[in-house]
Amino acid sequence: MLDTRELGRRPGSQRQVSRTVPAPADLGIEVLQVPEGSPVELDLRLEAVMEGVLVTGTAQASLAGECARCLESITDEIEVDLQELYVYEDHALPGEGDEVSVLQDDLIDLEPLLRDAVVLALPFQPLCMDDCPGLCPECGARLADDPDHAHDAAVDPRWAALAELTEAHQTGQTEQN
Ligand SMILES: [Zn+2]
Ligand SMILES: [Zn+2]
After folding, report:
1. How close is the Cα of 68 to the center of ligand 1, in Å?
2. Same domain (yes/no): 56, 21
3. Nearest ligand, CA of residue 129?
4. What pLDDT is attached to residue 168?
5. Is residue 135 in a domain?
6. Closest by alpha carbon to 125, among 51, 70, 88?
7. Which ligand is closest in space to the CA of residue 133?
8. Ligand nearest to the CA of 154
9. Is the torsion defined by CA of 100, 29, 21, 18 positive or negative?
10. Which ligand is nearest to the Cα of residue 150, counting in written order?
């Protein structure tokens, strides 16, 4: 919550706000999140305009999650741009509260803005590296750790299919006998 009372309502008046807040729960997406309680650094400029308070700035936080392909844990940093106009309560039209952000009791709730910005900035599928080869479909080993990983059974899929056919054929013959 940001208090805007010190800013006043005179259009054009400005205030810089720098503060560190603990991250709320579930900030991010399921596979990549800002750990709950970890510091989120806010660097904001509050500017009074005719209809409310314009907030612009950045938020910096750390990220933790896992690679979408190999499940290796990932840590990263994120910096997102924030921009939102918070309309004065007495300037907001009735029913408008759903579409615009409204200042309540001169306070700004930054959490929805922060959530939207962080989620938008995150990759849909976080990877430990750009070309993560993922896991071996045979044994689940992490292929990035062992690029030459192979199994004796791993043969050209065309041969594998042929081998299956031959096997089925042989089984069929055995049953006939
Ligand atoms: Zn990976
Ligand atoms: Zn394997």
Report:
1. 7
2. yes
3. 1
4. 63
5. no
6. 70
7. 1
8. 2
9. negative
10. 2
Q: Which domain holds residue 156?
A: 143-176
Res 97: pLDDT:
55
**How far apart are the CA of 126 and the centre of ligand 1, in A?**
8
98 alpha carbon – ligand 1 mean position (Å): 40
Q: Which tens digits make up the pLDDT trace of 142-171? A: 999 988 888 875 556 666 666 666 666 665
> So what's the pLDDT on residue 53?
95
* Gap from CA of 135 to ligand 2 centroid (Å): 8
Residues of the chain with pLDDT under 70: 94-98, 153-177
Distance 145 CA to ligand 2 centre (A): 11
Please check whether residue 16 lies inside any domain of the structure. yes
pTM of the model: 0.75
How far is ligand 2, taken at its centre, from the CA of residue 140, in Å? Answer: 6
Is there a single domain that holds both residue 45 and residue 111?
yes
User: In this structure, are strands 73-87 and 101-102 parallel, antiparallel, or unpaired?
Assistant: parallel
